[in-house]
């Protein structure tokens, strides 16, 4: 197998267990960014004149990667921008179902608009609890992260598809920022109505880029008000009131969206089947080792499947101990969050276990 670590220079300096906070930049994306700005430097407005063509190619790349037609792919600078734009198109009397301790960029925009909300506690029986809440509350919208940013609890796409079939009148709006890029994903077959994602984590696309995927009937249910020059410009935004165009007012950033396209092409080179296989293996090994050490929450231990994000019991002293051992992680929620991607190794898990064991013996 090719060296999957070579493209990420930071991996030569650290045990990088912090993709859930910020995915490392690859040489491929770095090279694209240099070439793009060199083109801008020497050609000026000529580069801008090619913007529409480039943005169309980026949408096509995103759509091909996630199995969504490009006329249903909107490019946004980040999840929060796209989500707030989306919420502005939802009537104020609609109700929302949320998960407790959800990512603030989901919960805050909803509560700030004073939508009626119901919540589901995180537990080992999360899927059963979600189904009961959908049945009991009959919310207009279920907004959620596919993978929880603190605990790493993961909702399977099969489960979400089943719930959408059982509750077709509820809009399923998902944050894929902690999920997209970790395994094969087919949006059109997912049961999700809308998926939004920032590209700077598991896609390794750097900052300032993200996307919105939506099903064909969504424009009949959500009516964003955002508009501006370029909302009607381009190959996939021909008609007035175009839903995609509501997310793209003004001039768009081809440097950052081009970085997303480059990162997705690189993941295709690596092969997403390989990425998924490695991530599943890392998740199983890490969960087993961390469970043995007794540093995981009981909710995580009891669940049969999990992401590659784990929250370890500990404080800043442990965090500093890990950093002193060149292990990059995050202080997050009740403990220290570590996260593994396909460029991590079993040996690095063992290095983490060794550092934790040394600390726990103090």
Automatic annotation (TrEMBL):
Keyword Transferase in record: yes
- Do you know which InterPro entries this protein is assigned to? Aminotrans_V_dom, PyrdxlP-dep_Trfase, PyrdxlP-dep_Trfase_major, PyrdxlP-dep_Trfase_small
State the coiled-coil residue ranges.
Answer: none
Q: Name one GO molecular function term.
A: transaminase activity
Q: Which UniProt keywords apply?
A: Aminotransferase, Pyridoxal phosphate, Transferase
Domain (Aminotransferase class V): residue spans on this chain: 15-352
Signal sequence span is none
- What is a single Pfam family found in this protein's UniProt entry? Aminotran_5
Task: Specify the protein name.
Answer: Aminotransferase class V-fold PLP-dependent enzyme
Query: What lineage does UniProt assign to this protein's organism?
Result: Bacteria, Pseudomonadati, Bacteroidota, Flavobacteriia, Flavobacteriales
